[in-house]
Amino acid sequence: MSSEHTAQYSNGLPTAIPSLLSGGYNHPLAREWQNERQLTKNMFIYPLFITDDPDAEDAINSLPNQKRWGVNKLVPFVQTLVDKGLRAVILFGVPLKEGVKDELGTPADDPEGPVIQGIKTLRKNFPDLFIMCDVCLCEYTSHGHCGILRDDGSIKREESVRRLAAVAVNYAKAGAHAVAPSDMIDGRIRDIKQGLLDADLAHRTMIMSYSAKFSGNLYGPFREAAGSCPSQGDRKAYQLPPGGRGLARRALRRDLEEGADAIIVKPSTFYLDIVSDAANICRDYPIATYQVSGEFAMLHAAAEKGIVDLKTIAFEAAYGSLRAGANLLISYFTPEFLDWLSL
Ligand code: PBG
Ligand code: ZN
Near ion ligand 2, which residues have CB within 5 Å? Predict the structure, then answer.
């Protein structure tokens, strides 16, 4: 066969011209040009664990390179990251003092507690830093669940969402730019939106909803870091079942209707079909993936075993999220990416 659009290879078989791709990505820059979306520093949101001992700087065994910070130690650490181009953080409070946790999660929005103090410290020292707060009760309740419980251990929905909304409003009052409810209890976005409206804060507070958050085996290192493991039972009655793609789509639509301004899919790598669904359903909204503690720790463990190269696999994971449709990445690798990326 000979035609204008065939080329002759050494094995003698004719090759159609359109089948030749490699010339298009031989150069490193040409390879970068293949990205639909370029990974940039402003896509990264860094999780920060803040504890109630102001001078703490405790390594976290379960989470490589992460620490629990006291507010006094936070500023010099965050300064090094801001200097490298950090734009956004998400705060998690970790009360460690004996006896402060209760059934209602009172330390969540204690004015002297780690989150409120953390917000104020960061706002004062880093005027350009975008400050998000995870909104949940599990780090602050005596039982370790994400809401308020009945005697049988099930979630009291109305009381829980009312309490979560109060916490979110208090974070916004303290200066948080965004609140990110991760509890997964039905109807909380509506209550938070209404709470922000009533407090005259809705116009300056973004609600980034963990809309599609799955219950699985990937949050272990976080729960150790945050001391938020439920003392009894699990979170299967409120977080989504891993096979529940349709449920995730319903949760995404529901949260948009209730007033979410942006959404999070979590975990990331095992749920890229959900990210792609979110990119369709929430096409006019920012979409974040959360590469959770278990994913992060697994990549570190694999790198230590020599199975993967850490930097290469971190980029592969990040581009997986971008290809699937995310444009924001909540990642424990943020400090490294600030070194690795130039823009
Ligand atoms: C609180 C919360 C969790 C995570 C984010 N917010 C833990 C959980 O749901 O048990 C997980 C983050 C991670 O694993 O890195 N509800
Ligand atoms: Zn929780």
Answer: 136, 138, 146
CATH code: domain of residue 189: 3.20.20.70
| Residue 311 annotated as catalytic | no
For residue 128, being part of any structural domain is answered with yes
Give the domain extent around 206.
39-262
Instruction: Look at residue 330 and tell me if it is in a domain.
Output: no
- Write the pLDDT tens digit of every residue in 60-99: 999 999 999 999 999 999 999 999 999 999 999 999 999 9
How far is Cα 245 from Cα 256, in angstroms, rounded to an integer? Answer: 17
Does the annotation place 249 within a ligand binding site? no
pTM of the predicted structure, to 2 decimals: 0.95
CB 321 within 8 A of CB 265: no
pLDDT in tens, 295-339: 999 999 999 999 999 999 999 999 999 999 999 999 999 999 999
Shortest CA distance to 290 belongs to which of 316, 323, 264? 264
- Could you tell me if residue 182 is inside a domain? yes
The answer to whether 146 is annotated as binding is yes
Number of domains in the chain: 1
